[in-house]
Amino acid sequence: MTTTGEDHEAVPTGPWWWARRRSAALDGGLALVSALECGAEGVPFARDAGIPASLGIVFGVLAGSVLLIRRRWPIAVVLVAIAITPAQMGFLMGIVGLYTLASCELPRRVIAALAGMSLLGTMIVTFVRVRQDMARGDLTLGNWFVPFAAVTTSLGLTAPPLLLGLYVGARRRLMESLRERADSLERELQLLAERAEERAEWARNEERTRIAREMHDVVAHRVSLMVVHAAALQAVARKDPEKAVKNAALVGDMGRQALTELREMLGVLRSTEGPAQVQVQTQAQTRSQVRTRAEASEQGVPGAPDAVPLAAVGAAAAAAASRAAGGTPEGPCLSELDELVGQSAAAGMAVDLSVQGTVRTYAAEVEQTAYRVVQEALTNVHKHAAGAKTYVRLAHRSAEIAMQVENEPPPEPASASAGLPSGGNGLLGMRERVVALGGVFVSGPTDAGGFRVSAVIPAS
Predict the structure, then answer these.
(1) Is 139 helix (H, G, I), strand (E, B) or coil?
(2) Mean pLDDT of 21-46
(3) How many Å apart are CA 55 and CA 34, to the nearest integer?
(4) Could you give the CA distance from residue 302 to residue 183 in angstroms, rounded to a whole number?
(5) Which of 57, 60, 124, 366 could disulfide-pair with 362, CB 3.0 to 4.6 Å?
(6) Nearest 10 degrees: CA dihedral of 272, 270, 200, 280?
């Protein structure tokens, strides 16, 4: 499992200011070694200073124990190490203190100032000690050795821990930056996955609504006409057998048309090729790009769960609904409006169709929507105003197409209903279709007691 920056921000498990117990154990061990070193060096210091040896040992132990707080107060540790440099003790504390100081998040000028103080203090003390040794005759080298020993000793005790601390601090900051970047990429990947799920859910709901609308238009209109013809067939079966045969043929034709349209819609649901696969590939490429960016940060990011390409359902259904078996747009079009009106007239409706403007072709979804609006409006007349005279008007304009279906009041109140069930979704479905294309839909009763349905759809 990949470790990210959030895992490093866990609650500290060590005592006091230590984040982990092993860090506390390490500092405790270093402080113990430093206390022993300073305590041993306190004996010659007490002898040179003319104080009791026990006092020098206690002073050394207390000074060396300051290394215990190096993570919390590194400046204090370095200052104590500089202060006890003239006593020639605290070498370990000085080295570890400079390393800790350089690796901390402190201003560079503070680190440089304390490092310079340590370097200068070590150089002066070494210069004085070596000069004293040469004066006593302990060293017989030339005068050149005094500055050489002072410079090399001060650089040897200051430069290595300082440079190592700067390197470790820079590396730590780089790793934290990479962890933050990996966390950011992981959150971005999760957000993309969540948005993909939301889009998929939206596409699924839209597709359900579209299929329900299509099935409502197909079933409601065809079955309504079949019920009307069946009622007429029942009325004339004995009186006019020839007309009964004609009505039976119409019922059969309408049933076959309804089955054909239902098969086309079910074929859309079974479609698994075309834009659906393109959508799947697009989502896979998006996830791959995000993972590639995460790997570029040199930190592994756990992959988000694969987003289910449900958005492809809407794309596949919409594409399949606009394709015919021979490559032409599938579904009804305005050229079939005469046949639609003729079917209603054959069912006994007095319907008048008028077309204004220059007839031309439109996009498949525009023609299908216009056809469905007229179809559903005629179906509502069959349901709620049987026998009423109906006017269907179609106007071809420069940038839009307008349609209006208006019926007069039914001739007899008792025949206002043909006994057909109504789910109340017809007007809602028409409005959704028209608004989805950027059009305007208006419906409502007329002053004469009839009902009017009007829609305007942009031509493109």
Answers:
(1) coil
(2) 89
(3) 17
(4) 10
(5) 366
(6) 0
